[in-house]
Each structure stands twice: as C-alpha cells, then as structure tokens.
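To close the chapter, one final illustration. This time we ask the reader to focus less on the individual chains and more on the assembly as a whole: which components sit near each other, and how the overall shape emerges from the parts.
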Amino acid sequence: MKYSKIFSKTSKQPPKEADTINHRLLTQAGYVDQLMAGVYSYLPLGLKVLNKIENIVREEMVAIGGQEILMPILHPKTNWEITGGWQSIDVLFKVKSRIDKEYALGQSEEEVVTPLVLGRVKSYHQLPIAVFQIHWKYRDELRAKSGILRGREFYMKDMYSFHETQEDFQVFYEVAKKAYLKIFKRLGLTAKVTEASGGSFSKKISYEFMVLTDAGEDDILYCSECDYCVNVEIAKEKSQDECKMCHKGKLMIARASEVGNVFDLGQKYAKDFNLSFTDKEGNKQFAFEGCYGIGISRIMGVIVEKFHDKDGIIWPESVAPFQVHLISIGSDAESLYKELCDAGISVLYDDREIAVGQKLADADLLGMPIRLILSDKNNGKIELKKRTEEKVELLTKSDLLMRLH
Amino acid sequence: MKYSKIFSKTSKQPPKEADTINHRLLTQAGYVDQLMAGVYSYLPLGLKVLNKIENIVREEMVAIGGQEILMPILHPKTNWEITGGWQSIDVLFKVKSRIDKEYALGQSEEEVVTPLVLGRVKSYHQLPIAVFQIHWKYRDELRAKSGILRGREFYMKDMYSFHETQEDFQVFYEVAKKAYLKIFKRLGLTAKVTEASGGSFSKKISYEFMVLTDAGEDDILYCSECDYCVNVEIAKEKSQDECKMCHKGKLMIARASEVGNVFDLGQKYAKDFNLSFTDKEGNKQFAFEGCYGIGISRIMGVIVEKFHDKDGIIWPESVAPFQVHLISIGSDAESLYKELCDAGISVLYDDREIAVGQKLADADLLGMPIRLILSDKNNGKIELKKRTEEKVELLTKSDLLMRLH
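The assembled structure is written out below.
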C-alpha cells in the first residue's frame, strides 16, 4: 500500500487528554481516532492490526471446536430481567425506543447465548457445545480512560461452553486455557493466569489472563519460581511472602492488564431460563456453562504499552499492519515496491515527496518490523533495518528477497 | 464441515410470526435466530453467508480506492445536534448513560465520518477521499418486519466520498455505480438503478439500487426497453405510460427491494461542522460529500426471497456457505469427505445417523449448489445433483473431482 493513499497520516502533536502511551502513540501514528472518551474509530492501518489480532484469536477458537456465530448488540430487557442483570449491573447501557420499549446493549451475552443454545439441546448426546463470537460490547463506565485499554465500546471475543457435568466443564477449561496461552504467545505476549473474584453473579473463582504492564489496572502477586499468580483483590498473601504452592519462590507484586478471563457460571443461566436436557439416566438436568473472554481492542492497546520506545510503536510481526516499511531517498522505489508486492511481501511504501527525516521519523512512529531504504548512495543495494535493532545491513535485491521470505 | 458438529440444525416447524419467506426459510434451515422483532443472531452457516456477501462488497470497494475503516456505533449527542439529526430523525435510537450523558446509536455515519475525514483535509491536494466501513446499524423502527429485510439492527456497508467539486462527485458516483452493479452481478442479482427522493436533509435526487421481488417494500416503474427506472413515490408517470427517456418502451410497475443507495449530500455536512480546505485559488472551500450504502444483511434476505423453491433455499454459488452437500446412504463417506476437503472443495458432510429422507429434505432446505450422494447401490460411483436442476448424474471419483474444480 502506498502511504500517500491513506487519509490518516501521522501527527507531530500528541493528542490532548492522552493519559496513556497507547492512546498517544496510536493517535499520533494515525491508527485510531478518539470520537469521545472510551470510544474510538479504527483508521485504515489500525483496522488492519485489529483484524490480525482477531484472526489469530478466531483460528485458535475454531481449533478447539468453537463454532463462530454473531449475536445481536441490542438485547430485549426481558432476558436481562430474567437473570437479574437489568437491576444489578451498573455498567449496563439501557436504550429506550420511541414507543418506550427498553433494550440493553450487550456487555456480555449469557442472556442471549443461553436460550439460543440450550433452547436447542434436548439430550446429553448434544453436549458439550462451544460457540463464540467476535463483536463490539458496551459498558457504561463512569470513567473511560487508558486509551483503548478500557472503553465504553470495545471489541471482544466471547466464547460460551455448555456441559453435562461440572467435570466436563473443567476438562474444557483446561483445553481453552492452553488455547489462550497459545494465542498470547502468537501475539508476542506472555500472560499469567491468575485467580480472581467471580463476576457479578458467580460465587466461584474465575480466572484472569494478565499481561504485566505499568499501564495495567490491576495489581497481581506472582511467584518468582512457579506459575502461581493471584489478583491482589482476593489475595490472602502479600508481597515477599513465601509462595504457598511451591514453597520455594517469593511473591512479587506487579501492575498488570487483564487481556482475557474465564468465568465458571455453573447452572445459573440454564436454571434462570429454565432450559433443561435429558441426561444419561433419563432425568431432567441443567447444563453447566462457562464464559471465556478475550479483549481484542484492549490487546491492541496492551501490545503498544509493551512494545514501544521513545520514537514510536514496535509491532510484533504477527500483528503488524505491514511487514515492511519502504522509503526511497533520491531513487524511485516504485519498481522495488512492485517486486516486493509480487513476491507476496506486505509493504507500506512511503511514496510522499517530503523530507527524508520526516519519513524516517514516521517509520519509527508507525512501527513496522522491517524498514527498507532505497538510496542513490548505495549502488543499487538496499538498506535493511529491523525496528528492534540499531544494526543496518546492505543487501542486494536477491538477498533481500531471500531474507524476507 | 460435519453437519453433526453444528449446534443449529434444521427444524420441521416454521417459526411463529414468520411473515416472509426469508424469515421462514432462514430460521427453519438454522441460518438465523430471531431474538426479537427486527433483531437476529447469525448462526454458524448464516454467518458464513453474511461474510461471503461482505467480502464481495469489500473487494469491489477496495478496487475503486475505498479505504476501509471502522467507526463507532455509540455516537456523541453533540455531533447529531450539529447536523439537526438529533431532533429530526425519528428512527434515531437514543441512549442515556447512568450519569445522564446522551448518545445516539449509528443509523448512518455522516456525523462521525465528516469530522474524522475533513478534520484532516487542509488542501485540495488531499481530495478526493473515499472511506468505507462494514458495520452494524440501528433504526428505531415502529414496526420491524420482513425477516432480515428490515431490521432494527442490520449490517451495512457505508462508503463516504469527499470532493473538491460537485463535478468530481459526479465522476466518482459513476465509478461507484459500476462497482455496485458488479457487486450485485457477483451476488447473482440484477439491480435496477432508480431515481428516488432524497434522505432526511438532501433536497437533491438520490439513487436507489432495486432488486425486483414480491417481498420488496417499494413500487418502482421501469421501462420495458431502456434502463430508465423510478420510484413510484416520486414518479410523475404511471404504469403503461410511454417511457420519457427512450420513447420506445412502456413503463411497467413492480414490487422491489432496495439493496443499495447513493445520496448526494452536497456541502451540508462540511458546512455543519465548519471544516473547510484551501482550494486551487487559495480560497476556503467546503467539500462535497457523497454517501453510498449497501445492506449486507438485507441482501442475504433478498437472495432467499429471489432464490428458493417449495423445498428450501437455492444459494447462488458466490454466497453459498458450502459448495457441496455430501450425503451417504449405507456407505461410509468419511474418506470421500476428506478427499474433497483435501482437494480444496468446501463440503458440508451430513454425517448424522438418521433416515435418508430427512437428509435429502435437509439438503434441499439448506440449499448448497451441489448435492452428492455416496450409495452402496452405485458401484462406487457418486451421484451428483445441482440444486437448480432435477437431473442426476453418476460420476466416478476422478470425474467428480474434475467437475468440481
């Protein structure tokens, strides 16, 4: 893609009100545009990043048997009254139609997915079932802040699984946990699985997937030796205590951002909607339900918080909008651009007629993994620099093509 | 995909309240599920159709230079007050937060896209610009009906173009019109371009892309000989009049469904937001804007209205969730299924242990373009039947693979 064709360019001025690095860098680089607090537009390059994260999540959900669906954002009030959420969830956005009919905007979808799935399940033969969607969600936050880390409108993958027994849920939870850890690895993130308090209704323990970052909103205690990790909110221990799991490590405190979660919902929703199935013994039974979230737009923000330097963003290869950022100095890079595209390499070509210094600064701000410079001075060789390294290499075109494949 | 793995199966019972063919067939076949009037969930097979339509539309918008973005659904009241829409648009859904902040749910995006784009345009050099998104939209309809043809929540592609002059808009409109006609052709539809009345604010003529169908909500007059076509709402002529364009044909009246539209918005929105650019002569100037919509979910409904018979849906190849519906009678079709998948053919394999008659009925209801039957009786040959034909052919496996490529 030619950079001149993209309407949202970089900006030298940081946005007003930017309280976090992700908000500042994503806005200055032209990836997103804040419409109002907690609500953003995704511009051409930003939408590419969002789609790349989304596709990685989708692949791993399909790989563990998740069936993709798309549920409405506009929900009937009735469903939320049945579960008690209409009265008790303070972040639930409520909408009134012109004839005073009331709706909720989806902030989680148990109220829709439970009747949708369990309304079709008559026998234990049909279980387990796991369905997921990737969709926009709404939360009436009193204070939306931290850029795209905590929005009033945000993009999420939410999966729901339905089981004959609590044990079967536990089995699937372990499968989903592995898929989650694989997703975070593919995204270049290391996530810790913490125990946390349950959601609005769940009395049970829930699990959170946390990425360590100073922009996070939670404090977690993690063991210096083993995998044990707990949200400070529910921890009985404190920093520097001995780990109660391995009895070797010490507990360390760190700021972290929640990028995923799992809720063990038990039979609550099946019972609320009075949707039962016939079990092996021929008895009526209520299904056990699990809910598994991953914040897609939030992850985009977390990645920027984790991977940046003073000059700009440093996208991990798996989510970078383009692999290569091509700049020409003096020479015309048009034919090299075409050759790279023909070879199947994704290239952002800065074809603007502006000062070289500005082009170099923009390349750092935009953060593609590899920067190429075609310059008259290099006798036909092309300069390659990784965004993560200072080292610069000069390569012939054929060596370059080999390297990029 | 194995049909046994999909949680949303066909149903023998038509849904209650189904007032249209698309609602009845899409629900019975398990493509969609009505959550409430005008609001639907898209189930695994239905989401595949929606995505296929969406991708065709996306390809053609990118081909004419459209830049894909994604704008919020939740809009600030201010933007809608500036344009007058907050007071005058009766289908605008309004949301009040718990601290009494007010928002609109996007039903069209001029209020967001105009400041987003024109806020970045300082000079005529930067124009024209065309951006588009594919996103959910909301209309507070008094009566939502006709299945997914007219929803309170619906999926739309909306493009917005910005121009230095009215003439430049006209040039781009012709380009967009060709792209639209190409899209409808790829979707298996023939659309007529009609003149219609403007939207809420536009005094100018707008254009509608209409597909003839008895389930439509508009009446149009079209010439039996030339391309002339007009919405009855604004027509000065009546049925059987001579065509005023070609003076050869007669005007015919027909029921039609609007699948796309174009609005010539002039300088209204640029002026409302007071966003000007510097033109060639160095003067401040307001950009001319065009809006181009295509109803993605509505098209899915229109296709079902157009392509069905008494037994079920007949998907055009370009949007069918799978190309092939594979059924086994007696024999095990597992290895044939794998071979077809390995050959890159998209197959829905009905692997359930149920009566053959039910499988055949489901194949007709679901509507894949090609049905294959592997039966003990056919000496290893495979029966192929197109959904659109009665003719049945017996093919060897190698002939079959040749045929499907």
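The first strand of chain B starts at residue 32 and ends at 36. Residues 322-404 of chain B form a domain with the Rossmann fold fold (CATH 3.40.50.800). With these observations in hand, you are ready for the problems at the end of the chapter.
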